[in-house]
Amino acid sequence: MTRKTVTVFGATGTAGVACVNELIAHEAFDVCVLARKPGQQERSSSGMTRGEAAKKSQYDAWASKGVTIKTVDSTLAEELIPALEGTDYLVSCVPISATESQYPLIFAAREAGVERFVPSEFGAIYEFEQFWPTDTTHRLMARQKAFIRRTIELAGLDYTIIPAGAWPEYYLLDPVMVMGDGDTKVAWSSGPDVGRIIPHVLAHPASRNAICPVAATAWCSWNELLEERERFLGRKVERVYLGADEWRAAYAAQAPGAIKTLLAIGVAVTDTPAGMSLFGNWNATFLPEFKGTPLPELFRDRIEPFVAAVRAELIATGELPPDA
Ligand SMILES: NC(=O)c1ccc[n+]([C@@H]2O[C@H](COP(=O)([O-])OP(=O)(O)OC[C@H]3O[C@@H](n4cnc5c(N)ncnc54)[C@H](OP(=O)(O)O)[C@@H]3O)[C@@H](O)[C@H]2O)c1
Question: What are the counts of helices (DSSP H) followed by strands (DSSP E) for the chain?
Fold first, then answer.
């Protein structure tokens, strides 16, 4: 593969940081980061955000490793276009709640002669899920992401779509609400493994103008994942198995907020007989050498701290009772 310059947007987020770090380590890529000017609207997938000081030290660390940092107003074509000149692949890692921030980026990428756009996807196969029967906040997000892909094609850019299944750290608050029967294999990709796998997908020729659904961390059932967690914690993990009617009822009864967003995903997974298309293990075929983080390490370093932080956040916002 000829050497490519990759620019990452949303670089200081979970997937973004891991993606930039892996790009630096990968021999095929030169790396640029688009840094948004301080003061621009700040969002995140989890509701927890990073401050300017943390971002600045991250940019400094990357710059010392040869990464080019370009600071822009990410809403202005006049600033985005020159910043993207010389980019071959543009990877967007914007959070779930800032999907629309990619529109100016697509236009600027086209004007700047970027070859390929990798939109921030990293969940289900939204081409299917956008047509699911029940109207939820998650289906709206799926429709937005599918529309972004159409816009990329309209702009005449190549694309790579990377569905990554479920990020386990988002779904393991006790008692765990299992989506579906618990025995079907699904794709699991923790946020950092999502970021890590992106450069390897891009370096593979089969990823051009393709949907590449990966299982970056594990390809196993809910029950298998929960058994691993029980082994790690040394205790039983409480769980409930909910069918489509129960997910829909829980979603309808929940006030807007983070919990409702998660319930919408439960609706999406169980809403049709086959469930949401979380399946896909593209990496087993095309990237057999890629290894996700081993589960015990992942529970220790990522999943349990994340679950604890989410619980604390939900208690602080009043979405969970103080003794949850
Ligand atoms: N399938 C799943 O279970 C699952 C779970 C979580 C996330 N996801 C998906 O993974 C993707 C990445 O999510 P993530 O959790 O890695 O993101 P994240 O960590 O929440 O991203 C935060 C970063 O996004 C950038 N950002 C913040 N506000 C922005 C705005 N208004 N416009 C543009 N950029 C903004 C900032 O980076 P800069 O300041 O450096 O730009 C910030 O550090 C999303 O598409 C999300 O839907 C999937």
Answer: 13, 11
User: How far apart, in Å, are the Cα atoms of 110 and each of 45, 101, 132, 159?
Assistant: 27, 16, 31, 12
- Sheet with 29-36: strands ordered across: 68-72, 29-36, 4-9, 89-92, 116-118, 158-161, 210-211
Rounded-to-integer distance, Cα 261 and Cα 255, Å:
10
- Please tell me the predicted confidence (pLDDT) of residue 48: 84
Q: Are strands 218-220 and 186-188 parallel, antiparallel or unpaired?
A: antiparallel
| Span from the CA of 16 to the centroid of ligand 1 (angstroms) | 8
pLDDT attached to residue 20: 99
Q: Which protein residue's CA is at the shortest distance from atom 9 of ligand 1?
A: 122
Ligand 1 centre distance from Cα of residue 32 (Å): 18
Task: Please work out whether the CB of residue 119 comes within 6 Å of at least one atom of ligand 1.
Answer: no
pLDDT at 276 over 70: no
Q: How many beta carbons lie within 10 A of that of residue 57, not counting itself?
A: 10
Return the H-helix or E-strand segment holding 187. strand 186-188
Answer for the pair 33, 69: CB distance below 8 angstroms, yes or no: yes
Handedness of CA 91, 94, 98, 99 (dihedral sign): positive
| Per-residue model confidence (pLDDT) at position 278 | 59
* Total length of the chain: 324
Sign of CA dihedral 301, 307, 310, 315: negative
Place of tokens 């990619």: 102
